[in-house]
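Discussion board: Methods & Data

I've been asked by a reviewer to show the raw model output for two of the constructs in my manuscript, not just the figures. I'm not sure how much to include, so I'm pasting the format here to get opinions. Each protein appears as its amino acid sequence followed by a line of C-alpha cells. Is this the kind of thing reviewers expect to see in a supplement, or should I convert it first? Here is construct A:
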Amino acid sequence: MKETVKKRFSIGKILMYTFLIIASFISIFPFYWMFVMATRPSAAYNSIPPTMTPGDRLVENFLAVLDKIPFFGAMWNTLVLCAVVTLVVLFISSLAGFAFAKFKFPGKNILFISILLTMIIPPQLGLIPQYYLVAKFGLLDTLFGAMIIFFLNPLGIFLMRQYIGQSVSDELVEAAKLDGCSNFRIFRSIVLPIILPAFATLGIIVFTATWGEFLWQFTVLRDPESYTIQVALSSLNTTNNVDFGMMLSGVFWATIPLVVVFLMFNKLFISSITEGSIK
C-alpha cells in the first residue's frame, strides 16, 4: 500500500504537476487581467498596486466601445474573412499535401522546397507589391482584397504533406486506383476522413492567425464599413487620452470567438497530437 502511494506521489510527478500549474497560471493570467481591466475605469490601468479584482463597469465600457466603432459589423467582417481564409487554406493545403505525399511528378522536390523557402521571407517585404496588385485589380476596401494573399499557406501544405504521408498508406491509394477511383475521389472518400484531426489543427492555427493579423488589413481596409475587428479596435487609440478600460473591454469581447472556436475543435486538435505520440 505504501509503495503504491509513493508511486502516485513521487517527487518527479509532484515537480511535473507543480510546473504545469505554474505554466497554466502564467498562460491564463494575461486573459484574467484583461478581463479585470475591462471591468474597471481607465485610471485602474496604472494603479499601484495593480488591481486584481473585477469591477462593475464591464457593460458601461462595452457600451462606450459601441459608441466609438461599429463593433458588431467589424466582428462580422472578421468572422467572414477568417472563415473563408480557413476553408480555402484547408482545401488548397490538403490537395497540395496529398499531391506531394502520394504522387510522383517532375520537379516535385524542387517545387516543395521552393514553397517551404517562402516561409523564411518576412511578410513585410511583400507588402508593397501585394498592395500594388490588389489596388490594380480594384480590391482595396474589400474583404476579398484583405483575404486573398492568405489563401496559399506554406505551413499548411507542409503539415498536410507530412500527415498524409504518415497516415495514408500507399497500398490503400493503389487499391482505390485499381477499383477505378479518380484522384479526387480518392482524396474525398479516403484521405479526407483520415486527416480530420490534421484539419482541425491546421484550421485552428489559420483561424487564430488570420484573426490576429493586423498589418495587411490595416493597409488595405480604409472604409469603416469594411473594417475588421483588429482595425476597428486600433481606431480607439487615436488620441492622447486613451480610455484603457474601454479599449480592453473591446479586446475582451473580440477574444471570445477564438475561445469558442478552440472549444469546438479541441478534441480533434488533441487527437492529432496524441495520435503522433501513439504511433
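Construct B, same format:
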Amino acid sequence: MTLAPDIEVLARFGRALADPIRCRLLLALRDAPAHPSDLADALGISRTRLSNHLACLRDCGLVVAVPVGRRTRYELADERLGHALDDLRTAVVAVDADRNCPDADAEGCC
C-alpha cells in the first residue's frame, strides 16, 4: 500500500465528508464495525444507496470491507480516523446563516 500525499489525503477526506449520508456512515463506523444491512436500517436508507456510499468511502481509503463468513463487515480503515472525526465534530466553526458552501449542492465523490 502506498501513502498518498498529504493534500490528496485531505481532499479525499473532505470529499467524503461533503455528503451527509457518508458523514453519518463514518460516525456509525466510528462507534463500531457493522454489516451493510445493519447500517442501512440504522440510517434509514436503501441498501443500494448505502452500497454506493460505502463504495465511495472504500475508494477514498476511509473504510475497509472485512469478509466474515458469507457476509462482509465494514470498519474504519484506521482507528485514528475515529479520533479525527471526533476532533472535527467538536471543532468550533464560524458559519453565516445566510451563506452556503459553494459545493454544498454538488454530488459525487472521490
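Answer (T.O., handling editor elsewhere):
This is acceptable in a supplement if you add a one-line summary per construct. For B, something like: The first strand starts at residue 63 and ends at 68.
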